[in-house]
Amino acid sequence: MILMQADSFAQRVPFQVVASGNEVLISLNVASRKEVDRLIDRVEANGGQITRCPTDARGFYGASFTDLDGRHFNVIVR
Q1: Distance of alpha carbon 3 from its chain centroid, rounded?
Q2: pLDDT tens digits, 49-66
Q3: What's the rounded Cα separation, in Å, for the pair 56 and 59?
Q4: Which secondary-structure segment (H or E) carries 8?
């Protein structure tokens, strides 16, 4: 778990940080870029929403998505 100040968190997520309520970004580390792409393809095929397409950023390759219940996920590989 990483605890961040709201402004730092807002810079790292592709959605607007809300002033109330609880929010969590679940980050999944995988072994390869191919795994990132495969997982994002599966998420999209099963109705999840891709909020950031796979890309290189800050030394990582990753993407973000929400599941059918609206939970936020980040999948990355270094």
Answers
A1: 16
A2: 999 999 999 899 999 999
A3: 7
A4: helix 6-12
pLDDT, one tens digit per residue, over 21-38 is 557 889 999 999 999 999
Planar angle of CA 70, 72, 1, nearest 5 degrees: 135
Cα of 52 vs its chain's centroid, Å: 7
User: How many CB atoms neighbour CB 39 within 10 A?
Assistant: 18
Phi-psi category of residue 23: left, alpha or beta, with phi > 0 → left and psi -120 to 50 → alpha: beta
pTM, entire model = 0.73
**Which domains can be identified in the chain, with CATH numbers?**
24-77 (3.10.180.10)
Residue entry with tokens 């309520």: 21
